[in-house]
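Q: Got a minute? One more chain.
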Amino acid sequence: MRILLAEPRGFCAGVVRAIEIVERALAIHGAPVYVRHEIVHNRHVVEDLRAKGAVFVNELDEVPEGALTVFSAHGVARAVERDATSRGLDVLDATCPLVTKVHVEGRRYAKEGRAVILIGHDGHPEVEGTLGQIDGEVHLVADIADVAALPIEPGRKVAYVTQTTLSVDDTREVIEAIKARFADVVGPGTRDICYATQNRQTAVRDLAKVCDVVLVVGAANSSNSNRLREIAEECGARAYLIADAGALTAAMVRGAKAVGITAGASAPERLVEEVVTTLRALGAGDVAALPGIIEDVTFRLPARLQAAE
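A: Always. Here it is, folded:
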């Protein structure tokens, strides 16, 4: 049984930046540093940061007044920002810059008088944050049926933005349905999508073409990890989403000649390495990486943390 690794996989630049913000804040200011929600959707990352002194909270009323507080990579609504200000919290914003870009685009479209349609998954932290960042008329849709049910007049000027963990392929049909229903539609170009989402989906498609089984390392509440598993399955592979090597069973890979491994954008590489070790214990042999896009994207830290370097 061969092991093939997707390229790219795992951490994206937004996740690297968010984790580094918490780690650097702890190094400079000491514990505790409060973090609203999971900094990224991965239990292992959260537990590692908790061991270093991060305190994760669901809402800001759990944070002492004036305390150093980090907003997660998913972004927050303006109401949360106002709440933080009213409580005198010292905020470091770890929102992914690509999420912030969606917020800016949505606000610009609303200011132009357009009804804004957000393509995304109801209840996802990023979606909740984006909905709360756009002043004016905004609607959430997940599929073409939602587009058909929109309470917007056909003659209304509209615009669309998307959750960053969706790719061009994920949103193509929904965007086409929006354009078919409304005459005046604007939206971001394909250059504005999350590079990491698209790259990882392209890589898992390549992986599924040459593997019997694809293992996606990632959290159950990670939108992009779930989508990677779905894509591998759509491409004909047996596919499993596993949180870590402890979730891997011999039955998952029984009879496979080639097992592919990828990882969601918030999964540490050490988890992939542990899965490889477990597969070798089950009799796997060679390990090789499929050729793919080499990512060199980096995002700057907040200025106050840069100054402390």
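A: DSSP finds twelve helices and 13 strands in the chain.
Q: Perfect, thanks.
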